[in-house]
Design brief:
By secondary structure, this protein is of the alpha+beta class. The protein folds into 3 domains: 88 residues, no CATH class; 219 residues, Thrombin, subunit H, CATH 2.40.10.120; 110 residues, Pdz3 Domain (Roll). Helix content is 18%, strand content 29%. β11 and β12 form a beta hairpin. α4 runs parallel beside α7. It comes from Triticum aestivum.
Length: 454
């Protein structure tokens, strides 16, 4: 059965169902009028759902549909829109470096995502992608090294891939595959630092679907807001991507590499290119990403509440830097005298304007000090707005395993039914022009569905 992109904006006639109505109605599988399962239909569903790793529905109902699938593509670009034409040309310029990957346990698919070819030798090519590709399904803090990885190339061919390096803190992985002369490595060093100096930067997120091999692109701008994901080094764009775009590149209109995309319901988080480059260098130098622990959670000043900004402006009108959102008890930062609400303006005498600059400098210092076996003291210049007080402190960082500190959830694939548009986690149906596959009633002719495929 094809995975189709249709245009419905609601699940059933008469509009959506409210949370109150939903709460008062029984589950579909418990209703007395639930239609009986049809053995042939159930077998067909099992053949098509299980190899993709998707759940079976509780029952069979006309209009039910599967949401948050890996087959859902980005929104279609208008062929007559000048801006969309630029987006498509930009996507085409890097298309020979964009692949899709899938991991399998036996014959069952576990995850799919996008990857970017970032390096090559005469015999192999390296693909930068998301570590979600190889995480254990029952314990996301561990890697399942028994998974088989398949790579769909830009020409549609599928070849095996092998995991080389990964980092669970940043959720990145590098997969190696056989070299092909017709495909080239993307220039990820042609990058732009994403910061407050580029508030209106136009960005393009690119992905490739695994089953169809379709190249996808969508545009947006840089957002100065925090993401729901744990990793504090992430930035956010307004590009709306689907799960298939996880691990794909984010590039500027000038062709510059901005970062790698992840998926969330509050915008598209991305790991900035400067941090990705440092991680790849750590892979080559240390075999892993060496992440010192300072015991701080920091954020951009631009993302703080107005009251916080007013308090800072009253004490230090021309202040810049990064905001301390949390100090962990017993941490190196706590021992240095740091407190929540402090503003760090310099790190080792280098002025700071964003949290990403802070983390990049930390990784820079890690490269030099770890190679010489030295300790890692960081000198910070601090403003304390409440007391109009400024001071310097030394934070003696510790190198610890931070791989389990960040969670990287992705939207779950699930079935929804005509009377079940909402659940406790929020809306399940997105009002976009290319929603997920809507499963037909068992009475509908499946051959008719095949003929309607675009």
């Amino acid at each position: 059965m094809p995975w189709k992109n249709q245009e419905p904006t609601s699940i059933c006639e008469g509009g959506s169902t409210s949370k109150r109505a939903k709460a008062s109605s029984p589950r579909n599988s418990d209703r007395e009028d639930s239609p009986p399962r049809r053995d042939g239909f159930t077998r067909m569903m099992r053949r098509r759902m299980r190899p993709r790793g998707y759940p079976m529905p509780d029952g069979v109902y006309g209009g039910m549909r599967l949401v948050n699938t890996f087959e859902l593509c980005f929104k279609e670009l208008d062929g007559y829109n000048e801006d969309h034409t630029k987006i498509k040309l930009l996507a085409l310029s890097v298309s020979q470096s964009i692949v899709s990957l899938a991991s399998f346990k036996g014959k069952t698919r576990q995850f799919t995502c996008t990857g970017t070819i970032v390096g090559r030798t005469p015999s192999s090519m390296s693909i930068l992608t998301s570590a979600s590709l190889v995480r254990c399904t029952n314990d996301e803090t561990e890697i399942d090294d028994k998974l088989k990885i398949k790579v769909r190339l830009p020409n549609g061919k599928i070849v095996p891939g092998k995991l080389w390096k990964y980092d669970l803190y940043y959720n990145i992985a590098v997969v190696n595959m056989k070299a092909f002369p017709e495909f080239r490595a993307a220039d990820i060093h042609n990058q732009v630092e994403a910061n407050a100096k580029l508030p209106q930067s136009k960005l393009v997120a690119i992905g490739r679907a695994f089953e169809s091999g379709e190249l996808m692109a969508t545009a947006g701008t840089l957002l100065y807001k925090t993401t729901k994901l744990d990793c504090q080094e992430l930035m956010t764009s307004s590009c709306y991507i689907t799960k298939a775009g996880i691990g794909g590149p984010l590039i500027g209109y000038g062709g510059n590499f901005f970062g790698m995309n992840f998926c969330s319901d509050d915008g598209t988080p991305f790991l900035p290119a400067s941090l990705l480059s440092k991680c790849l260098k750590h892979f080559d130098t240390f075999g892993r990403v060496v992440q010192p622990w300072l015991g701080l959670r920091i954020g951009s000043l631009q993302a703080q509440k107005l009251g916080t900004r007013v308090e800072l402006h009253d004490s230090f009108p021309d202040a810049h830097g990064i905001y301390v959102e949390r100090v962990f008890d017993g941490s190196p930062a706590a021992n240095s005298g740091m407190k929540v609400g402090d503003v760090i303006t310099k790190l080792d005498e280098v002025p700071l304007f964003s949290a990403q600059e802070f983390h990049k400098l930390v990784l820079d210092k890690t490269e030099s000090t770890t190679q010489h076996g030295d300790v890692m003291p960081f000198e910070v210049s601090v403003l304390r707005p409440g007391n109009s007080f400024d001071f310097c402190a030394t934070i003696n960082a510790e190198v610890i395993d931070m791989s389990k500190q960040n969670r990287w959830p992705v939207p779950k694939t699930k079935w929804i039914y005509p009377d079940n548009e909402y659940d406790d986690e929020g809306p399940l149906v997105r009002k976009c022009s290319r929603p997920d596959y809507r499963y037909p009633s068992p009475d509908e002719d499946e051959s008719t569905q095949d003929c309607d495929e675009e």
